Amino acid sequence: MLHTHVLVANLARTTDDGIWRTLDSRKLFAHAKTAGVLYQAQLRHELTARLGVAWQPVVNGHADIDRVDRQLIETFSQRRAQIVEHMASRGETSAAAAQTATLATRQAKGERATEAELRRDWAHRATRAGVGAG
């Protein structure tokens, strides 16, 4: 239910000569999966330490928040459903196919829903899934 992203600035001013330089992103990309697993572990640790969040078992470096029903998570995982549906329609299952499906099903940038519209949609979906406020 918790979905986050990490951004890494690829531009920094060096301390010895003050020149702005880019990082070698090839090294970052080569270790992106490992970095993601470490990030998820640290995020879980911080949320547990600061807020008392409990977790379901970790699978492939990710874990769902404990006591959040899997069906509810899937109700709100529309983007994932689009990707899985695209892969299924092509009979594909690999990580490379998932990456291709992610790009193929991505919504074009343009006019987006307002925050108020998003909140109404989320409340409607939650109600349909049997979850109410409070």
User: What form results from the Cα inertia axes?
Assistant: extended
Q: Identify the strand order in the major beta sheet.
A: 1-2
What is the number of helical segments per DSSP (H or I, 4+ residues)? 6
Helix coverage percent of residues? 40-55%
What would you report as the Rg, rounded to the nearest angstrom? Answer: 19 Å
Overall tally of domains: 2
Number of strands: 2
Biggest sheet statistics: 2 strands, antiparallel
Q: Kindly state the mean pLDDT as a whole number?
A: 89
Q: Which regions have little confidence, pLDDT < 50, spanning 5+ residues?
A: none
The share of residues in extended strands comes to under 5%
* N-C termini distance: 17 Å
Structural class: mainly alpha
- Element-by-element helix/strand order: EEHHHHHH
Question: How would you summarize the topology of this molecule?
Answer:
Layout (H helix, E strand, L loop, with lengths): L10 E3 L6 E3 L2 H6 L1 H20 L18 H6 L2 H13 L4 H10 L10 H14 L6
Antiparallel strand pairs: 1-2
Helix pairs in contact: 4-5
List keywords for this structure.
mainly alpha, 51% helix, extended, 134 residues, 2 strands, 6 helices, two-stranded antiparallel ribbon
